[in-house]
Specification:
single chain; 0% strand; mainly alpha
């Protein structure tokens, strides 16, 4: 069964900001627990896996803090302009 068009349109709008936010919220606690054993001050030092994982979580943080709000602001402004141009009265 195909979902209604309105539901599909709403999912399409929230999918982009929702995916990085959920990934960041899921991976941040994992990084905190991994950093306790493999982070700064660990006896074995920092491994390449830890550094790559930390860089991935940092990139997700940048996306969540910069790209997602910019995209949301763009969508709000574009929607407002579209609404004003479509209904000038």
């Amino acid at each position: 069964m195909k979902p209604p068009a309105r539901l599909h349109a709403v999912w399409r709008l929230i999918r982009f900001p929702l995916i990085p936010v959920v990934l960041y919220l899921a991976l941040r606690p994992v990084l905190a627990s991994v950093s306790e054993s493999h982070g700064f001050g660990s006896p074995g030092g920092m491994g390449l896996g830890y550094l790559l994982f930390a860089a991935t979580v940092s990139a997700l943080r940048l996306i969540v803090l910069v790209v997602v709000p910019a995209w949301l602001a763009y969508r709000v402004v574009a929607g407002a302009v579209n609404h004003l141009l479509r209904d000038p009265g």
